[in-house]
Amino acid sequence: MKTMNKILFCGLFILANSLSAQYSFRVKSYNEINLETRETISTREVNQIFNVSLRDNYLVHNVLDEYGNIEDSQLYKIIKQEKRNDLLWLSCESGVTGNVYEYIVNEDEVSGPQLFYFNSGTLYLLDGSMTRLKTYRQ
User: Fold this and answer.
1) Taking Cα atoms as reference points, which of 34, 96, 37 lies closest to residue 61?
2) What is the number of domains present in the chain?
3) Is residue 29 included in any domain, yes or no?
4) CB burial class (10 A; 0-12, 13-18, 19+) of residue 38?
5) Among the four 5, 80, 99, 109, which has the fewest Cβ within 10 Å?
6) Dist. CA 122–CA 94, nearest whole Å
7) Are 95 and 88 a contacting pair, CB within 8 Å?
8) Is 18 helix (H, G, I), strand (E, B) or coil?
């Protein structure tokens, strides 16, 4: 019975941590991915930062110029979080337009967490580096 309780507690702890994860992604390129072959179709160079707080339910998107200065910044509310096939799908609502955008977080054990953007049947890997984000709610 004690072993079962420990397993249950560990499972709940892992689930709670995955649903309250926080990330900062420094994105250097958008790589369009072919959904059938999983190969890169095209690459577009960018300079952006995405801050994702699942605990606070917000995603912040910052567009930087070539010198690293912020050109544009927008806050999105995460209105839905859904686990699908070991991927975390996020539906993020714009306060400016009301549009909803789909992002995917893949917590790959080998390469580390990756951020994807899904739009009209097209998948983009937002390629760059990642660090943990310190959120408002701890």
Assistant:
1) 96
2) 1
3) yes
4) exposed
5) 109
6) 20
7) no
8) helix
Question: Position 122: which residue type?
Answer: T
Q: Is residue 43 part of a domain?
A: yes
pLDDT over threshold 70, residue 101:
yes
**Which residue in this structure is represented by tokens 């707080």?**
53
- Cα–Cα distance between 30 and 17 in angstroms, integer? 28
Residue 18 confidence (pLDDT): 44
Q: What is the DSSP-derived secondary structure letter of residue 97? A: T
Rounded CA separation 33/124 (Å): 6
Of 109, 112, 56, nearest to 79 (Cα)? 56
Per-residue confidence band for 16, with pLDDT thresholds at 50, 70 and 90:
very low
- pLDDT at residue 20 in the model: 54
For 120, the domain range is 22-132
64 found inside a domain:
yes
> How is residue 30 written in tokens?
């958008």
User: How many angstroms separate the first and last alpha carbons of the chain?
Assistant: 32
**DSSP assigned state of 68:** S
- Does the residue 1 lie in any domain? no
- Name residue, tokens 């789909």: 102
Token output for 14: 């892992």
